[in-house]
Amino acid sequence: MKIKASDISVRFKRKGKHSSDIKILESIGFEIEPGKVTHVSGRSGSGKTTLINVLAGLLKPTDGKVLYGDTDIYSLSDEKLSEFRSKNIACIPQGQSALSNLTVIQNLLLSQSLFGNSDEQAAKGILERVGLSNFENAYPDELSGGELRRLAAARALLSPGQVIFADEPTNDLDSENAALILELLKGAAADGRAVVIVSHESETTGIADICYKMESGKIIVTKDS
Predict the structure, then answer these.
(1) Stretches in the chain below the pLDDT threshold 70
(2) Angle between the 104-113 and 145-158 helix axes, to the nearest 10 degrees?
(3) How far is CA 46 from the centre of its chain?
(4) 8: domain range?
(5) Rounded-to-integer distance, Cα 66 and Cα 77, Å
(6) Contacts for 92 with CB less than 8 Å, ≥ 6 apart
(7) I need a labelling partner for 209 at 20 to 30 A (CA). Which of 34, 39, 77, 123 fits?
(8) Which of 173, 194, 83, 128 is nearest to 71 (CA)?
């Protein structure tokens, strides 16, 4: 489904003696197409992670709407929004997101069970694709930072979500594994999913159909298919 950000702004109130509004995003409007890879770049502090959190239903904007098809996701109740996210949105976050008391394979099977499914063969298959088949019985604290990134990617790719938001997905990865993850994300787009990558890495632009750049809370197009 198509995603449309309509006049999105995010402001925070600075507390204290010199209180004022801090603008993180300012009147952003653009669309995300299914079957395409959209890349968003920008310096640290430019607002790109805030933008991806708004688009993924994790942070309600101060102003504006986020539409998935005809659904304004921030008009939904918290319960309905959570249900909508679980069915439609997959994320590869920057931080470590695996449950430490579960093995690698158990983490994937748990995430599958949230969608009413638990296919061990599918879980093992995606672990093989991301190069983690030898770690299915390992615990997250036994994995390196790069291996944890690949586990997060595996979970997103295994989910039913038709939109994948990837925040710095190649962080902590060597060039070979970075290329592997980008190829898998490109493949997800080829299968009809919308893939949004937020990254400052130059190699990510090579697989992107559309590129945007964040500057001081605003967004500009740098490449359009």
Answers:
(1) 16-20, 114-117, 225
(2) 30
(3) 17
(4) 3-95+146-223
(5) 14
(6) 149, 152, 153, 156, 164, 165, 166, 167, 169
(7) 123
(8) 83
